[in-house]
Amino acid sequence: MSNPVFNENMVEQTRVLEGEPMTINGAINKTFMLFVCLVAAACYTWFLAFNGFTDKAGMLTFGGAIAGLILALIIIFSRKAMHVLTPLYAVAEGFFIGGVSAVYAAQYAGIVMQAVIATFAALLSMLILYRTGLIKCTDKFRSVIFTATLSVALVYLIQIIASLFGRGIPQIFTSSAIGIGFSIVVVGIAAFNLIIDFDFIERGSQNMLEKKYEWYGAFGLMVTLIWLYLEILRLLAKLSDRR
């Protein structure tokens, strides 16, 4: 699977034995709950940043990024207490998103709202393409998206390591034509990951996974949406620099 949250064998091996099974509506409801948690936390950091509490906003942004990563790893590898951990993850990422968004908003007027609208437009577009069958989540599709996602992760990892030595990968993280092209490709890869998220939720429901996997499906969808939003924000900033 391209999304590291999901494992190809999970759907086949974790069928419910007793109690309620996972449903699509249940996963949608839990996604909405996580989204509310994320937006509330993001608004709080945003409020702090634009009302003079920059130190506190910075701490929440940095702390949210670290806590979000730790919680994500716990959820992925343990898959326990997801009804508690996934909302905590959404809150942590909300603090991070709010701080990052405030930084971009201070430099580029209106960019945050544009990124939010573009993210939801991508979500709706991918959902329509998936539901109409224009894009099918086949094994080949998963393999291609997995390879592309892994490649992007490696590029970012190399950039992080290089930056520690005062260097960086030429062009792709700038506002040059190459940098904009790279961001467009990454946004596309992130958007196609949504197809895999939809497929997990649908197949999980069909294969009667345990009820707790509604939280897991919602978590995976949130991971992709957060990544997509950040990449769109970066792309819009590059485009603004070119004007």
Explained architecture:
The chain has eight helices and no strands. The model has no long low-confidence stretch (mean pLDDT 91). Helix 2 (24-49) packs across helix 8 (213-241), helix 3 packs antiparallel against helix 4 and helix 6 crosses helix 7. It is mainly alpha-helical. It has one domain (10-241). It has helices at residues 10-13, 24-49, 54-78, 82-107, 111-131, 139-163, 177-206, 213-241. The radius of gyration is 18 Å and the shape is globular.
How does the major sheet shape up?
Answer: none
Note the total helix count.
Answer: 8
Cα shape? globular
Helical content band: over 70%
Number of domains: 1
Number of strands: 0
Beta-strand portion reads under 5%
**Overall radius of gyration:** 18 Å
Q: What order do the helices and strands follow? A: HHHHHHHH
Helix and strand content put the structural class at mainly alpha
The overall average pLDDT, rounded, is 91
Q: What is the CA-CA span between the terminal residues?
A: 38 Å
The low-confidence parts are none
Give a short summary of the structure.
Helices cover 77% and strands 0% of the residues.
Write the layout of secondary structure elements.
Layout: H1 10-13, H2 24-49, H3 54-78, H4 82-107, H5 111-131, H6 139-163, H7 177-206, H8 213-241
List keywords for this structure.
single chain; globular; 243 residues; mainly alpha
